[in-house]
Design goal:
By secondary structure, this protein is of the alpha+beta class. The chain has a six-stranded mixed sheet with strand order 2-1-6-5-4-3. The termini are far apart.
């Protein structure tokens, strides 16, 4: 992963979310995706906040888009590693979020851990 590749992924990901385009959002994820998020715990009523599999992730994201019709992200920073990126962004409410994304060999997101400021 290079700096340019990381920023390209991040900008494309944010643009897909800001367009509320679920198909475009889902293009970034592997079939066996695993996401862990406090927002998932809240929206899905689970204690572990885990979403496993692309179909489950799509359903969760659909629910999130419906729950937050004004959803909008502003990308603040992108950090990159060997096979991972961290997207640091602010949402429409001013909440700061950092999402660690581990990438598969083909550059799709295989694992996400989301962290929030509030």
């Amino acid at each position: 992963m290079t700096r340019d590749e990381a920023w390209k992924l991040a900008n494309h990901w944010v643009a897909a979310w800001n367009a509320h385009d679920l198909d475009l959002i889902m293009m970034h994820y592997e079939e066996a995706i695993e996401l862990t998020s406090p927002v998932a715990a809240q929206l899905l009523g689970t204690s572990d906040g885990k979403v496993v599999g692309k179909a489950s992730l799509r359903a969760y994201f659909q629910r999130g888009l419906e729950a937050y019709p004004g959803l909008h992200f502003r990308l603040e920073e992108v950090l990159w590693g060997i096979n991972s990126v961290v997207l640091y962004y602010t949402n429409q409410k001013g909440t700061r979020t950092a999402e660690f994304m581990e990438l598969s060999a083909i550059g799709k997101v295989a694992r996400v851990v989301a962290n929030y400021s509030a």
